Amino acid sequence: MAGLPIDDMAAFALVAEHKSFGKAATEIGVSRSALSHSMRALEDRLGVRLLNRTTRSVATTAAGERLLARLRPALDEIGAAIDEINNFRDKPAGSLRLTVLPLAAKTIVGPMLARFLAAYPAIRIEISADATLHDIVRDRFDAGIRPGERVERDMVVVPVSGPISVVAVASPDYLRQHGTPKTPKELQSHECIRVRLSSGGCLPWHFAKGGEEFEVSVDGRLIVNDDEVLVRALLDGAGIGYMPREMFEPALKEGKLIPLLTDWAPVASGFYLYYSNRRQVPAPLRAFIDFLKAEVRAKAAA
Q1: 3-state secondary structure string, 82-149?
Q2: What is the CATH number of domain 94-161+270-301?
Q3: Which end of the chain is less crowded, N or C, counting CB atoms within 10 A of the terminal residue's CB?
Q4: 200-210 residue pLDDT tens
């Protein structure tokens, strides 16, 4: 390995783990062609093929698999060493990658980002806002933010919001034309706009009353997987929607959407930041956690 750049070795590890030049190139911040050229140059210098390439896939060879098994722990150790050095800085430095549910990205992380970046000018941060439940260790994220029930038990968790109120809503126009459901079961005769989850199923519609929680089977001609599309369809009178109240809050305040079945509205667990307990907390992540905790306290006191 003498004379081989650490950056090239780290790039190889990303390509091998993602099984994709495109995903690895995006994470590193270079073009796919430049990364492919670097990997061919690395193979030429080592004198052995590390990756098998086709037009649709990338896979490690036996030599590449052996190199990756030895390389990843070494790269993790280098990263940990750099994090320890960061402890001697006046301000933490380095990169931070987070996977965040879109609603949490919009309501929790987004509003604080400018202040965080101003407070920590040496930290680079990447936010992946999507509904996929990532394995943060496998996918090389430093941390994630998800509802409590969707966080694996072996993670360290930090609460970053209070309980989440979930509500059914519709526009005044829809209710004038189709009537207002008085009980959750009446939803079965309405156009309900369902939300497709990354798992493939649709978001279940839960309700609760008198200490009892139950699920109602709903149907409708429209299924979406995007929050903005859902809100637009609701505002245009396409049906009844069901999501955390915060998503609809501006439209509810303006009277453009009406909350329904509020006596049956369930309260879900709040959002949690979570990270692996199998490694030392990087300095940028520690700074982010402390900053986010301060933001949550300030919001609660307001």
Answers
A1: HHHHHCCCCCCCEEEEEEECHHHHHHHHHHHHHHHHHHCCCEEEEEEECCCCCCCCCCCCCEEEEEHH
A2: 3.40.190.10
A3: C
A4: 888 899 999 88
